[in-house]
Automatic annotation (TrEMBL):
InterPro entries assigned to the protein according to its UniProt record, in alphabetical order: AMP-dep_synth/lig_dom, ANL_N_sf, Chloroplast_AMP-bd_Enzymes
Coiled-coil parts of chain: none
Keyword Zinc-finger on entry: no
Protein's recorded name: Long-chain-fatty-acid--CoA ligase
Enzyme class per UniProt: ligase
PANTHER family: ACYL-ACTIVATING ENZYME 16, CHLOROPLASTIC-RELATED
Length: 149
């Protein structure tokens, strides 16, 4: 790769030209844990495959609501973008009614949330949206587990 033309090209460009053992770091239980460029690319590709299995297609809108800045959200962003889908970041502290408005006007059909509090707000309005599925992403130390609700 000689040129970066899309956001999801950055990890691949870095992997090819200057791989970094600490491309991203996140604090888990008070200790900083690195993610290498190779792990970043591999995990992003795994996320893309998981999204494809969920039925995500090009131009689908995927809402992401997180109360924390973590490596996993960067991985999810790249995984979404390289499928040609669109990441719709939503501010985590808005009301359930505001979630309904944003989810409808963004035409989001999938929604990933970071915690149970946000999940409950989305559940309140899900019937009034076009959401096919919403998923609680639980972060456990270095690994992430996707759990359907």
């Amino acid at each position: 790769m000689t040129e970066v033309t899309r956001l999801f090209d950055f990890p691949y460009f870095q992997l090819q030209h200057k791989p970094n053992p600490k491309a991203l770091v996140t604090k888990y239980d008070g200790k900083w844990q690195p993610t290498s460029t190779q792990e970043y690319v591999d995990n992003s590709n795994a996320m893309s495959r998981a999204l494809l299995r969920l039925g995500v297609q090009k131009d689908d809108k995927i809402a992401v609501i997180s109360t924390a800045n973590r490596t996993e959200w960067n991985i999810m962003d790249i995984g979404i973008l390289q499928l040609g889908a669109q990441n719709i970041p939503i501010y985590p502290t808005i009301s359930a009614e505001d979630y309904e408005y944003v989810l409808n006007h963004s035409e989001s059909i999938y929604c990933f949330v970071s915690d149970v509090e946000v999940l409950e707000k989305v559940r309140k309005v899900q019937a009034n949206t076009k959401l096919k599925r919403f998923i609680l992403l639980i972060i456990l130390k270095v690994a992430s587990t996707i759990q359907n609700y």
